[in-house]
């Protein structure tokens, strides 16, 4: 079984995330695991975001689209380091070959700053997701580009849309739109959504 990991804050999960997971399937991965971070190592935490709520959103959608969810980073707590998660997934799933690790191409330039990055590179096949205009290739790191379209939305944009009352429902799966609306997530007033 070939395994790919798509990690992130998923605050909230949106259609771009699901498209990336689908690109992994198209690239030949049998199982794609979405792994919500407890605290992402390369992002500033968003005030008021709940790891449990983010996990619930991923769980409610992933299985319906044929993907899996792993809560190992949330159970572990603290800052989520990719190397720890890759070691956990390798032990838990016992994939054939190296785990495919999806990262945005904007993260490639700073990849050398990731915890134990050389060891990480020895354990994964990097799957580079397009984000905006194509960036300069790095010759020192091997990777495969995914064929994803440039999806011009981010979780930050969705949170800002919710908070300001702007439409967002066609940027997230219907289950996520309902969850955000029903729980009043990201808005100043509970139950307010577009």
From TrEMBL:
Reaction equations catalysed: nicotinate beta-D-ribonucleotide + ATP + H(+) = deamido-NAD(+) + diphosphate
Function: Catalyzes the reversible adenylation of nicotinate mononucleotide (NaMN) to nicotinic acid adenine dinucleotide (NaAD).
Record field: transmembrane: none
UniProt-listed Enzyme Commission number(s): 2.7.7.18
GO molecular function, one term: nicotinate-nucleotide adenylyltransferase activity
HAMAP family assigned to the protein according to its UniProt record, in alphabetical order: NaMN_adenylyltr
Family classification: Belongs to the NadD family.
A Pfam family the protein falls into: CTP_transf_like
Enzyme class: transferase
Domain Cytidyltransferase-like: 5-161
Any one GO biological process: NAD+ biosynthetic process
InterPro entries: Cyt_trans-like (IPR004821), NadD/NMNAT (IPR005248), Rossmann-like_a/b/a_fold (IPR014729)
Protein name: Probable nicotinate-nucleotide adenylyltransferase
Organism: Marispirochaeta aestuarii
Pathway per the UniProt entry: Cofactor biosynthesis; NAD(+) biosynthesis; deamido-NAD(+) from nicotinate D-ribonucleotide: step 1/1
PANTHER family, alphabetized: NICOTINATE-NUCLEOTIDE ADENYLYLTRANSFERASE-RELATED (PTHR39321), PHOSPHOPANTETHEINE ADENYLYLTRANSFERASE (PTHR39321:SF3)
Keyword list, A-Z: ATP-binding, NAD, Nucleotide-binding, Nucleotidyltransferase, Pyridine nucleotide biosynthesis, Transferase
């Amino acid at each position: 079984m070939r395994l790919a990991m798509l990690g992130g804050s998923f605050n909230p999960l949106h259609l771009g995330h699901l498209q990336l997971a689908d690109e992994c399937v198209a690239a030949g991965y049998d199982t794609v695991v979405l792994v919500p971070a407890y605290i992402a190592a390369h992002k500033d935490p968003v005030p008021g975001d709940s790891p449990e709520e983010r996990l619930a959103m991923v769980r409610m959608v992933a299985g319906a689209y044929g993907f899996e969810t792993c809560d190992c980073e949330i159970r572990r707590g603290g800052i989520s380091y990719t190397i720890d998660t890759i070691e956990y997934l390798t032990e838990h799933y016992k994939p054939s070959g190296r785990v495919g690790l999806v990262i945005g191409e904007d993260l490639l330039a700073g990849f050398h700053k990731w915890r134990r990055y050389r060891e990480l590179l020895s354990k994964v096949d990097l799957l580079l997701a397009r984000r905006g205009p194509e960036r300069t290739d790095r010759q020192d790191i091997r990777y495969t580009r995914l064929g994803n379209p440039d999806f011009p939305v981010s979780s930050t944009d969705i949170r800002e849309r919710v908070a300001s009352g702007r439409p967002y429902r066609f940027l997230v799966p219907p289950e996520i739109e309902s969850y955000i609306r029903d729980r009043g997530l990201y808005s100043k007033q509970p139950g307010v959504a577009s």
